[in-house]
Amino acid sequence: MNYNLQLIDIFIYMVENLEREERYPSILIMDFGSQYSELIARRIREANVFSLVISHLTSYDEIKELNPKGIILSGGPSSVYENHAPLCDEAIFNLGIPILGICYGMQLMVRQLGGDVTPAKNKAEYGRAPLYIDNENVLLNKVKDKSIMWMSHGDSINKLPNNFFQIAHTDNTSHAAIANEKQNLFGVQFHPEVVHSEYGFTVIKNFVYEICNCQADWNAQTFIEEAIPIIQKQVGNKKVLLALSGGVDSSTLAFLLHRAIGDQLVCMFIDQGFMRKGEPEFLMSFFDEKFHIRVEYINSRERFINKLKGVTDPEQKRKIIGTEFIRVFEEESKRLGPFDYLAQGTLYPDVIESAGTNVDPKTGERIAVKIKSHHNVGGLPKDLQFKLVEPLRKLFKDEVRKVGKNLGLPDEIVKRHPFPGPGLAIRILGEVSNEKLNCLRDADWIVRDEIKKAGLYNEIWQAFAVLLPVKTVGVMGDKRTYAWPIVLRCVSSEDGMTADWSKIPYQILEKISNRIVNEVEQVNRVVFDITSKPPGTIEWE
Length: 541
Ligand code: XMP
Fold this sequence. Notes:
Blueprint: H1 3-17, E1 27-31, H2 37-46, E2 51-55, H3 60-66, E3 70-73, E4 99-102, H4 104-112, E5 116-119, E6 125-133, E7 147-153, E8 155-159, E9 165-169, E10 177-180, E11 185-188, H5 200-211, H6 220-235, E12 240-243, H7 248-261, E13 265-271, H8 279-290, E14 295-299, H9 301-307, H10 314-336, E15 341-343, H11 348-355, E16 387-389, H12 397-406, H13 411-414, H14 434-453, E17 462-467, E18 472-476, E19 479-492, E20 500-501, H15 506-519, E21 523-528
Parallel strand pairs: 1-2, 1-3, 3-4, 4-11, 12-13, 12-15, 13-14, 15-16, 19-21
Antiparallel strand pairs: 5-8, 6-7, 6-9, 9-10, 10-11, 17-19, 18-19, 19-20
Helix pairs in contact: 6-7, 6-12, 7-12, 14-15
């Protein structure tokens, strides 16, 4: 395994992303492969404290350079006594910076400082457990005795290192929370970051405010104030090109850049013909006419639909649309340019994933970056001749929404449901035609209209229609019909990676079905998709 390569990668990543004038993180989350590392970072930011996730291989010197007020060691899938179990630089325990170990992070700290960790004697402990507080400690201030915390572990601490004492236990674990007050080192066996831990957020706030003395000074407004001079300095008087899709990321980016550099920003909106009803018109009137953000409207409808003639395979459709998008983008940027900079709405989860902070505990190899379920067809290749401006790259999605709102974007954009880059083309199964597109657009419009009227829009992750390329028999008036069915797909989700089908009240389903069959020609049947993800995906293609 190539530790050096990884260290260099991460160091370059840190340096590139933390130029001097940028805010340094108050809290660093050292990642040991936990599925919750991002969640820990998000919770800390919910407490208005800026945090970043770093690899567990980050060295003492690199951490010292970043000068955090506290460090959290994440959980992880390994056991600390296994070969190749991920470790951290032991010297960090002597930095004098408060450290909180969570689950694996706590066990690692214990082992590295001379304690002992073994497989749990009784049994592994998963799920809810009441927490019994044994000793007063600031980490558990205002945490109610016997409150429920979320446990997920197969190992337990057998012996604590010197100067540590136990502050709480559960029925199965004597060391559910520990502290070494002299050195400001703390550990919890439970997961304070998950919502099922009743007082989890209190524990996190105790750590960041009371123990690390962090200020609650990270919010959408401070982000904007700090981002604007950085963008201005980076771009100077050069022109910046932005591919606007109308989604919350590119819209927020457009507003932020416009505020920073005004007319040096040129947005390009490529209409591939697969947008929802009224979207291109809305986008142009909103950005261009109302806010005077220059948007070049590129009508490429013909071009895209022609390329899809005879194509039925979903992956091929995506590829064709993606390739065509890049071609149009290149041609049009040459026509409108030259541009020195390209603005991209890269978000923090993408940065963490591509930085690849995980190492396989069994082999010591770097774990491949997580494969995202979506293919971001709107994405552009890396070898375009632009320098990148990515001011959202340290934000989570919910933070982008807050920034967008703060910059004056309306709820209509900020709370918008995700929409795939290839648009309606992947919601028409099989070959795409203008006739089917028009039909789907009308059905989709009714779905959204009724979901909004029912007050469900903001509770649902995505609600949309899918057109099936088969015909079914129906009867309308006295006439037999033979027309397409529409699938109604409504899901609730946190991040699109997993999803559950939404339990829409029957009356609303009835209304949607009636309206679609009555108002959309060529549709005589509506069915409701009751598949969660997994095993289904959110989109049908
Ligand atoms: P699936 O269908 O994989 O979708 O469960 C997960 C989420 O990703 C969105 N999605 C896409 N987004 N380009 C995108 O930008 C795409 O090609 C794409 N495909 C799926 C989907 O709408 C859902 O929110």
